[in-house]
From TrEMBL:
GO terms for molecular function: hydrolase activity; metal ion binding; nuclease activity. Signal peptide: none annotated. InterPro entries: HARBI1-like, HARBI1_dom. Its cofactor is a divalent metal cation. Keywords: Hydrolase, Metal-binding, Nuclease, Nucleus. Residues 19-139 form the DDE Tnp4 domain. Belongs to the HARBI1 family. It comes from Buddleja alternifolia. GO terms for cellular component: nucleus. This is DDE Tnp4 domain-containing protein. It is found in: Nucleus.
Length: 139
């Protein structure tokens, strides 16, 4: 298994006309537009899909990206890493839900992973750190 890319969806606050505000309102109440981005291991963006409403679900944005004419493609033999907002499916790997995940949670405890799910989530979190840093630099 080779993990080549990581993807992430991020919201940016915007101004929209009053009648369109409901579709751009996030579950936290902000008015924003979403951008799906794919970053390689060298922190270079290899795919961007901006413009989705803030209320759009992660899976809906990803499905649109995959089904576009020149959309997101997973190279044969590679996987994209996504957060828990996405589903595990062909070419995409997400963490186990309800299992310790974030690196700061691992730092709080001195014990090693207790099972394969914790180990997988720890390694997934380390690999996804690349995209977290990349988006952090953009903001």
């Amino acid at each position: 298994m080779t993990v080549k890319f990581d993807f992430w969806r991020s919201g940016y606050t915007i101004s929209v006309v009053y009648k369109e505000k409901p579709s751009y309102r996030t579950r936290k109440g902000n008015i924003s537009v979403n951008m799906l981005g794919v970053v390689d291991i060298d922190t270079k963006f290899v795919y961007l899909l901006p413009g989705w409403q803030g209320s759009a679900a992660d899976s809906r944005v990803l499905r649109d990206a995959v089904h576009r004419l020149n959309g997101l493609r997973v190279p044969t033999g590679y996987y994209y890493l996504g957060d828990a907002g996405y589903m595990n499916c062909e070419g995409f790997l997400t963490p186990y839900r309800s299992v310790r995940y974030h690196l700061d949670k691992w730092a709080e405890v001195t014990r090693a992973p207790q099972n394969v799910k914790e180990y997988y989530n720890m390694m997934h979190s380390k690999a996804r750190n690349v995209i977290e840093r990349t988006w952090g630099c953009m903001k």
